[in-house]
């Protein structure tokens, strides 16, 4: 059994093994990585053959985390390599192939797989085997009203439910995210009454699906600037904050309604999260470098103390603001945003945890005292 402790973990970000997301995570300092448990979805690419691609993604995750613990998951069946995905989620012998696949990567913890149509007893046996072999069984429930019977069946069969973690992932719809708080609170209260040592994470993503339409446009369509509250932080607070649940979110935002892969020449979008909100800047100029410099300058000048934490993402912003060519496309700025977002959530959740330690009744929900 692996020795896995969540006592020092304050943040559970959901990421994919995409190049930009891995780069942003890779460039995060080790001290902050120790305070998080990333949930990394192995994301295949169409360039590589079948199961080899899942192995490649797993190796990339291992290299980025450098022996620190992290969770690996398969997500839903991909359109590419569906046969390889089905092979890994074969329920035979408690999903033995999936468990053996993850065992090859030090630091990796397998998420409990529950594909559509899987026998709940096979899923429960998988959770029991994962608890025995890895020391931590992690369940991820998705959607506004998740089905919980299978997870509850599995929790009843674990040797120690305190070695389980349930992630309530309420998805990426800003409009309904806060409406999930009541259901989450009810689930947590019910589970805690039944399994007092069970750990629960609430997560979501509130970045809007039409970010380019939000904000102000003082000189026409561009530039656009704006600020938006991170509703996932408010969701966490409404469920009970650190007094009751742990915090997670989708650490990389890919806005579906942004321009396609080929952006108009000279268009740059950059985002920055700090103090419970997103700040975003859009610029359309004659060149990408010019747009990057103007957008980055707006971020740097508008954020008090920017650069004082010595983060890789902050250095990238400052280089762009000073006129040095840095980002030439969406992927580069995505990596910067991921790096800064991860660091910020760790720092702010550490501050919240410290506040709760000093005064638990004021830091969380009064009903938790």
How is this structure best described in words?
- The chain has 369 residues and is α/β, with parallel strands linked by helices.
- Helices cover 42% and strands 16% of the residues.
- It contains 14 helices and eleven strands.
- It has an eight-stranded parallel β-sheet with strand order 4-3-2-1-9-7-6-5.
Query: Helical proportion?
Result: 40-55%
How would you write the strand order of the largest sheet? 4-3-2-1-9-7-6-5
Number of E strands: 11
User: In percent terms, what proportion of residues is strand?
Assistant: 15-25%
Mean pLDDT comes to 86
Biggest sheet architecture? 8 strands, parallel
Identify the overall geometry.
Answer: globular
Secondary-structure content class? alpha/beta
Cα radius of gyration in angstroms: 21 Å
Distance between the termini: 34 Å
H and E string? EHHEHEHHEHEHEHHEEHEEEHHHH
Number of helices: 14
Low-confidence stretches: 212-218, 255-261, 363-369
Question: Could you outline the blueprint of secondary structure elements for this entry?
Answer:
Elements: E1 12-16, H1 19-26, H2 30-33, E2 39-41, H3 50-65, E3 70-73, H4 82-88, H5 92-103, E4 108-110, H6 120-134, E5 137-142, H7 149-157, E6 164-169, H8 174-177, H9 181-194, E7 199-203, E8 224-229, H10 231-239, E9 246-250, E10 267-274, E11 277-284, H11 288-302, H12 312-321, H13 330-358, H14 360-363
Parallel strand pairs: 1-2, 1-9, 2-3, 3-4, 5-6, 6-7, 7-9
Antiparallel strand pairs: 8-11, 10-11
Helix pairs in contact: 1-3, 1-13, 5-6, 6-7, 9-10, 11-12, 12-13
């Amino acid at each position: 059994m692996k020795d896995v402790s969540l006592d020092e973990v304050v943040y559970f970000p959901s990421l994919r093994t995409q190049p930009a997301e891995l780069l942003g995570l890779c460039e995060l300092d080790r001290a902050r990585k120790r305070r998080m448990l990333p949930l990394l979805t192995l994301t295949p690419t169409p360039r590589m053959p079948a199961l080899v691609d899942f192995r490649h993604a797993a190796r990339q995750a291992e290299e980025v985390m450098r022996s620190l613990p992290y969770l690996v998951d398969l997500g839903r069946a991909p359109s590419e390599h569906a046969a390889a995905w089905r092979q890994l989620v074969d329920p035979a012998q408690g999903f033995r192939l999936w468990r053996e696949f993850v065992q090859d990567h030090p630091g990796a913890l397998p998420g409990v797989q529950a594909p559509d149509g899987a026998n709940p007893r096979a899923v429960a046996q998988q959770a029991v085997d994962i608890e025995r072999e890895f020391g931590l069984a992690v369940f991820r429930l998705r959607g506004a009203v998740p089905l919980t019977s299978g997870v509850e069946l599995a929790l009843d069969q674990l040797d120690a439910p305190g070695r389980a973690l349930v992630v309530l992932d309420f998805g990426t719809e800003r409009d309904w995210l806060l409406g999930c708080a009541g259901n989450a609170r009810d689930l947590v209260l019910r589970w805690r009454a039944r399994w007092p040592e069970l750990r629960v994470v609430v997560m979501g993503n509130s970045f809007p699906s039409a970010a380019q339409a939000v904000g102000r446009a003082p000189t026409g369509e561009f530039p656009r600037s704006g600020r938006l509250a991170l509703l996932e932080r408010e969701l966490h607070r409404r469920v009970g904050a650190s007094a009751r649940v742990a915090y997670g979110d989708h650490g990389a935002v890919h806005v579906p309604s942004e321009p396609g892969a080929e952006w108009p020449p000279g268009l740059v979008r950059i985002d920055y999260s700090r103090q419970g909100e997103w700040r975003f800047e859009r610029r359309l100029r004659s060149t990408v470098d010019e747009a990057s410099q103007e957008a980055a300058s707006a971020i740097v000048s508008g954020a008090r103390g920017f650069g004082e934490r010595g983060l890789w993402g902050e250095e990238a912003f400052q280089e762009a603001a000073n006129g040095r060519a840095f980002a030439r496309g969406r992927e580069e700025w995505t990596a910067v945003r991921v790096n800064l977002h991860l660091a910020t959530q760790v720092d702010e959740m550490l501050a919240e945890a410290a506040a709760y330690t000093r005064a638990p009744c004021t830091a969380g929900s009064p009903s938790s005292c």
